[in-house]
Amino acid sequence: MGKIGLNGFKVFAPIGVSEEERLIGRTLIINIEINYPIEKAGKSDKLEDTLDYGVLCQIVNKLTTNNFNLLEALASAIATEVKNQFKDCGAIKIRIEKEHPFLKGVISNSFIEWESES
Question: Considering the entire predicted model, what is its pTM?
């Protein structure tokens, strides 16, 4: 078992509790780490023997167009879709940062970390 993931995936999304925040949108920075059996791909050197980053990007891009209120809901949806697409994946860790959240004060970002068991 190894790990496959994406770090620093930036996407603009209509996410937030208030209607105004969803309307304006925010930049999200998403990091995904997936436990995955990478040994076969290590020997075969073939994309079909591993988790395709391109498909992972498609999942994130598709789900971030939805109007989620919470980062937690987005992370859960991403993890569910990853598990649906890649049956061999184990535990998933997702960190989502929201740049300049709608809060009083000067805040660079807010974040959640979401972890699933295998």
Answer: 0.92
